[in-house]
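User: Reviewer 2 asked us to show a designed sequence for the structure in our supplementary figure. I'm pasting the structure tokens here. Could you produce the per-position amino acids so we can include them in the response letter?
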């Protein structure tokens, strides 16, 4: 009887579903809708994975009835909470077995091929995890408002703040700060307007039913700040002093995680995420062989974990 493994990389924008044979050879892969567990109680995620499962079996020309011989692993955005993962795993899936993980777990498994070591995600958001001698260690990844150090969103927000201060004359300006202000509208008043996600002239009804503007003050989404990272990298390549200052802030964040991992006897730290891989040569120069590029992508990590859990 054939055995199959199904992996899901579930993100807030879309999810990818991959079907593999018992040797982890990919048979088919599809993309479907958003799948963050914290959105609408996980309903969009359930629909995206259910539809994606039908699509991927069809794409692989495998009878859908073979789901009863298929073991699945989902790595889900919004999966940090144990209760959310358990509730999602308990839904009426057609598989022989289902395991639900936080998305960093599949990033770890993919980056290190299912072996021990550490991983940091350095993209729009950030998180960190290590497995050493069977022990799982996780930190960071608490979201833009209270965490996500190392992320492009946090560094982009810091760059925007610094550029506004430079425009006021509080700190030294540079070609980068001028370019940021130009990107945000041309002056500090325009930058301030950009920083809010809604029109403050519109009456806001708060979640408790009262009038106010608390919800409006949440401001721009993390990804909007992360979009400043290509600009920073361009000016870093040109030797811009503020770009270098921002990079020193980033190194300070990464240093904290390196020390944290090394205190737990991790021997390698893989760098996952677009921003992290863009600055990987700089990280390698700083940390040597302790850092590495990922072996595989997170989606393959989900397939690896499916086999490790249900082999």
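Assistant: Here is a per-position design you can include in the supplement:
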């Amino acid at each position: 009887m054939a055995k199959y493994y199904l992996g899901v990389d579930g993100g807030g924008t879309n999810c990818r579903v991959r079907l593999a044979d018992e040797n982890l050879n990919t048979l088919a892969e599809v993309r479907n809708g958003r799948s963050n567990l914290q959105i609408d109680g996980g309903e969009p995620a359930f629909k995206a994975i259910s539809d994606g499962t039908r699509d991927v079996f069809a794409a692989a020309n495998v009878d859908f009835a073979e789901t009863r011989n298929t073991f699945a692993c989902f790595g889900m955005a919004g999966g940090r909470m144990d209760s959310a993962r358990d509730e999602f795993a308990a839904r009426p899936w057609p598989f022989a077995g289902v395991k639900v993980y936080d998305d960093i777990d599949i990033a770890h498994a993919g980056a290190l091929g299912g072996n021990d070591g550490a991983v940091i995600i350095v993209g729009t958001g950030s998180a960190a995890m290590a497995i050493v001698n069977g022990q799982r260690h996780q930190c960071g990844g608490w979201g833009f408002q209270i965490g996500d150090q190392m992320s492009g969103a946090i560094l982009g927000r810091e760059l925007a703040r610094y550029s506004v201060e430079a425009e006021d004359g509080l700190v030294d300006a540079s070609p980068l700060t001028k370019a940021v202000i130009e990107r945000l509208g041309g002056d500090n008043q325009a930058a301030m307007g950009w920083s809010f996600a809604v029109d403050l002239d519109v009456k806001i009804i708060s979640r408790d039913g009262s009038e106010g503007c608390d919800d409006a003050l949440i401001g721009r989404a993390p990804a909007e700040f992360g979009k400043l990272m290509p600009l920073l990298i361009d000016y870093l390549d040109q030797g811009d002093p503020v770009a270098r200052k921002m990079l020193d802030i980033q190194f300070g964040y990464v240093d904290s995680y390196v020390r944290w991992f090394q205190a737990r006897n991790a021997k390698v730290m893989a760098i996952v995420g677009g921003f992290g891989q863009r600055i990987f040569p700089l990280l390698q120069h700083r940390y040597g062989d302790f850092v590495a590029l990922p072996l595989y992508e997170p989606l393959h990590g989900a397939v690896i974990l499916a086999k490790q859990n249900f082999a």
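For the response letter, you might also mention the following. The chain has two domains: 4-113+295-310, 152-292. The domain at 152-292 is CATH 3.30.420.40 (Nucleotidyltransferase; domain 5).
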